[in-house]
Amino acid sequence: MRVLIVSRDGEVQHTAEVAPRDATDPPQWTPAPPGGGTSGKIVFVQTYPMDGRRILTVNADTGQVLDLSREHWDAYFALSPDGKSVLLNNGRGGFWLAPVIR
Amino acid sequence: MKLVIRPVRPDDAAAIVRILNPIIEAGVYTVLDTPLTVEYERDYIASFPQRGIFHVAEDQDQRVVGFESGEPYATYTHAFDHVVVIGTFVDLKERRRGIGTYLFEATLEAANCKGYEKIFTFVRSDNVASLMFYFRLGFRIIGTAQKQAKLNGKYIDEILIERFL
Q1: What pTM did the predictor assign?
Q2: Nearest CB to A78; choose among B96, B126, B135
Q3: Which of A86, A93, B80, B124 is the most exposed place for a label (fewest CB within 10 A)?
């Protein structure tokens, strides 16, 4: 699975291989900064089942991919609309909130 | 998926029961514990409060695939007139396709029009998928009501969540 960051006019800005052998959920974006555009925006992607569920981010400016997961973490997430926190779920009934620190 | 979100009609009762009863019978998504009849649901829709909000989602074949309803938090005082309590139900076979999100957009617009300021609801603590759905829509977790429900002899906590308009 690849994440493509595409400009408004359809030009591919960045291509990030996030789950070459696996599936993802629909990506979730942090909100647009004041003035709009993609500057500073981050795409959060849930992948599974490669090494357990993983949470990756793609920087829309640079295409840099970060893996936020930890070994055996196996978590699902939901991003708040303001992009400031994620709700994490361990798949076994537990959940916890974590701030998004950039 | 092409969807039409529209206000509920009494003749949607059969479709709603078709969606809701399997969810009730699964026993893991809702605290509702008794399957509904079409007659009961038709009466419920017909007598729905004037300030209530009730939309259904129809797919391209005009088949109802989900619904979301909201009612005033309480009617015994005007102190809660600004609070609406909602519930969202999507056909078990049609989940993860954005239906709930589209329904919520319609609910949000209607809630604004009807003068509500806040949306409130309860989620079973073991239904984390539902909690995550509402979290993505901007709800925040207020707290946990412990042993709030008792189903088949087992206590279940409920998570209280809210979203201001």
Answers
A1: 0.90
A2: B135
A3: A93
